[in-house]
Amino acid sequence: MPVSLIATQGLTKTYGPVTALADLTVSVEPGVIGLVGANGAGKSTFIKIMLGLLAPTGGSVRVFDLDPTRDTDRVRARVGYMPEHDCLPPDLSAAEFVTHLGRISGLPRTAARERASEALRHVGLYEERYRQIGGYSTGMKQRVKLAQALVHDPDLLLLDEPTNGLDPAGRDAMLNLVHRIGTEFGISVVVCSHLLGEVERICDSLIAIEGGRLLRADTISAMTTASDVLAVEVSDGTEELAAALTALGLPVRQDGRLLLVPLDTEDTYDRILRCVADLDLPLHRLDQRRHRVAELFAPKEPADV
Ligand SMILES: Nc1ncnc2c1ncn2[C@@H]1O[C@H](COP(=O)(O)OP(=O)(O)OP(=O)(O)O)[C@@H](O)[C@H]1O
Questions:
Q1: Distance 46 CA to ligand 1 centre (A)
Q2: pTM value?
Q3: Which of 59, 91, 95, 143 has the fewest Cβ atoms within 10 Å of its own Cβ atom?
Q4: Which residue has a Cα nearest atom 7 of ligand 1?
Q5: CATH number of the structural domain spanning residue 74
């Protein structure tokens, strides 16, 4: 079996009385991975544990099959980290700063300078790399933080809320850049966000946490598989069709222009089709509804509670 990129077993972290992560068991394959959850869900704590900056209170974590608490140097040599908060020296140029961090990562002087230029080129700051960071926009500062995470040529990037403070256009640009890094450079990326909608479109898989507990970890494609609900839409006569289907004993639920019918038996599909034909209604669509990723955090319907 291939080694997981990240694997945890019963991972728990408490800060005094606060439980930030509770019994989290998850295993993810390489790729672009979204780590999503509301503010305070435990995302930053999880990232810091993966980096060996914090030790778990209980359970275990492995990154590249290494223990970040014990093999901290080996893990950090392969992982780049972009922290959430601004931590940039305003009076240095991006080139100086990223070169400096390359040196701290153990690169020789010339290699550090070259790698810094390269990383700044990748994030679109090559032309402005000799300007002082203090004069940069928020978007440019986020890119410097991304460049410093890339400077030592890591195999995995841990990005904590990389779109923080950016306007919609800046967010899009940053997400496209993260996606490009994941796909073109073959680097795995864990991108943390409290906004599900923003990461779902650039990720291969998602880890969703709520209150420190795992909600679900899966590939996006598995999360959006066909559900066992048929969606039928007619251009006209929705109410009429709903009444006719109900009269046939089918439990119909209306969702805007859609009528949703559980796919309980094999003939449900044909019965709906026949009913639409009998009423001579213009059929717009009849298909199996796909799950949406947003259902992850959707409040449960009363019937499910
Ligand atoms: N050093 C600390 N001491 C005490 N409590 C902490 C500490 N760091 C985090 N917490 C608490 O642990 C919980 C998880 O925090 P964490 O920062 O990991 O969440 P998060 O999902 O990254 O949220 P955010 O996006 O707001 O940073 C929160 O309730 C937070 O208040």
A1: 10
A2: 0.82
A3: 91
A4: 15
A5: 3.40.50.300
